[in-house]
Amino acid sequence: MSATLEGPTTTDEFIKGLWKENPVFVQVLGMCPTLAVTNSAINALAMGLATMVVLVMSNAVISLLRKFIPKQVRIASYILIIASFVTAVEYVIQAVSLDLHKALGAFISLIVVNCVILGRAEAFASKNDLVKSLADGAGMGLGFTFALFLLGAVREVLGSGSLFGVAVLPASFQPWVIMILPSGGFFTLGSWLLFFNYLSKRKARKAALATAEVAS
Amino acid sequence: MVSVAKTLQLRTSPHVTSGASVDLIMRHVVWALVPTALFGVYAFGLTAAVTLSAALASCLLAEWLLCKWSEQPSTLSDWSVAVTGLLYGLTLPPGLPVWMTMLGGFIAVGLGKHLFGGLGYNPFNPALVGRAVMQAAFPVGMTTWHAAFGSGRFSSVPSSLFTFPFAAPEYTDALTSATPLAAWKFEHNLAAASDLVMGFTTGSTGETSAVLILLGGAYLAARKMMNWRIPLSIFVTVAVLTFALHLASPEAYPTAPFMLLSGGLMLGAVFMATDMVASPMTTLGVVIYGALIGVLTVTIRLWGGMPEGVMYAILLANAVAPHIDRLVRPTVYGTSGRKA
To answer: Does residue B265 contact residue B307 with C-beta atoms inside 8 Å?
Structure first.
């Protein structure tokens, strides 16, 4: 039981972002890109990956510099570090696919103010070593990408009858226009939150039942 | 008056009731809607009957399922969901595919009512929530209107009605027609006021006949089952605003009778805006609420992109209804001034 005495391991830090502390479904952070750019699966995936890259890199740099950044100016320093990586990522996206860059628009630049990234910098990277910060950033980034993809996939399938631009439903399908509109983002996010809360509640109920049986 | 039993009883107030219950009032609302619904079936034929039945059936089914899943006592038998279903059906264009009607019914009851806690907790009128989602999801289906009083309306239905679930409907242009509001907005044709009063125009199943809607409203108002101040406030606001605008520029703005009688204003003002849960509780509050609906309706109709705006006006006013109540809260006797 030495692991519990030493606190969470690097693997734990990675795993927690995927499910238990998922940035979108559990922490409900970073709602602006979550609602704004998930009208198709490819947009959602690109936004998720871009955020993940920035998150991992900024976590690493902030973790390395955590002993040199004065407490009073830490937020400004974090934002400066995050903004540098966002600028780099924006140029990469522009070079790889101009269409994607146009589709995501201002929301790439807005990764700078994504509260998931600043939240991890403040709550984790500024207090932990490089390896753990990398694991935390990768886990949270993957969890964020996963959540965005779930939203984007549902909205694209129902809103345009396709997934990644490939038609998956018969041509006679009537698209639900609302799903591509901003209101569809709220409805989809709400439905996913409902589903995940239902799952976790059911799990808690089962665990309570199991302990009750053991006790009796 | 409920008679009190002879034995000593301990209970909290109210001790004297008028005998009104959700059950009783909702049943009377259904009766008040029956003439409008029957006229809709008469005007649009079998299509309207199918649409109304599908709307009613989907709302009842959703209510039953959601009460069961949320482990609440069933509110199926208190007629409130029947009102929702009937109202929702009356706002739909006849000829809307049955699968869309039913999907909207589930959304109306699920999203509009049960997600907020069921009967008595809905911040918006559930029927309008269903219609608003349908309008945003299927804009073409929701704005394709079949002409009223078609020759074969009791022997055949448009093919779009029974479209395969989730498939796009196909419309034949010969059967469709523009509503009076759309005709005014896009073609500058002003329908005759007499046609609008009687309901000889195209539109949603239940919105065409002004006189029957007012009759139903008058019945409810006479039985004190509806707050007549709400529709009156809406009508006065719309009439005054349109009259002034028409006076200022007769060619740019329609006449007041046209604005009052066309589209869903009558149905919305009498039966939707008066939703007991979603409207304000104070007398001054409902007057402000009605005026707000009137102003929003005129604004959306005359300067918005869409020909009709009653639905959005009512939903927006529903959203601010609690704030209106807060604003006009009466002073508590013995205290000085209001405390927020």
So the answer is: no
Q: Which of A39, A158, A174, A186 to mutate to test the interface with B (most CBs of B within 10 A)?
A: A174
CA B237 to chain A, closest CA, distance in angstroms equals: 30
Q: Which of B143, B166, B171, B315 to mutate against chain A (most A CBs within 10 Å)?
A: B166
Is A2 a member of any domain? no
**pLDDT, mean over chain B:** 86
Structural domain of residue A135, as residue ranges? 9-168+175-215
**Among the partner residues A173, A178, A183, nearest to B168 by beta-carbon distance:** A173
Which of A174, A178, A183 lies nearest to residue B167, judging by beta carbons?
A: A174
Burial B109-126 (b: 16+ CB within 10 A, else e): bbbbbbbeebbeebebbb
Distance CA A200, CA A192 (A): 12
What is the CATH architecture of B22-166+173-328? Answer: Orthogonal Bundle (1.10)
B150: left (phi over 0), alpha (psi -120 to 50) or beta: beta
Query: What ipTM was reported for this prediction?
Result: 0.80
Question: pTM here?
Answer: 0.85
Of B145, B55, B163, the closest CA to residue B107 belongs to: B55
Tell me whether residues B166 and A174 touch, CB distance under 8 A. Answer: yes
Q: Select from A175, A194, A197, A170 the least CA-distant residue to A40.
A: A175
Neighbours of A65 (CB within 10 A): 15
Contact A68, A168 (CB under 8 A): no
Best CA proximity match to B80, nearest among B127, B36, B139: B127
Judge whether A3 lies within some domain. no
Q: Residue B147: what pLDDT?
A: 79
Instruction: Nearest by CB to B137, from A172, A173, A177: name it.
Output: A177
Other CB atoms closer than 10 Å to residue A87's CB: what's the count? 14
What's the distance, Cα to Cα, between the start and end of chain B in Å? 37
Digit-coded pLDDT (tens) for B22-74: 888 899 999 999 999 999 999 888 889 999 999 999 999 999 999 888 888 88
Q: Would you say B94 and B40 are in contact if contact means Cβ atoms under 8 Å apart?
A: yes
Pairing state between β A166-167 and A162-163: antiparallel
Look at chain A and report how many structural domains it folds into.
1
CA distance B260 to B298: 10
Give the start-to-end residue ranges of the domains of chain B.
22-166+173-328
Residues 127-146 of B with CB under 8 A from A: 133, 136-139, 141
Structure tokens at A116: 């998931």
DSSP-assigned letter for residue A162 = E
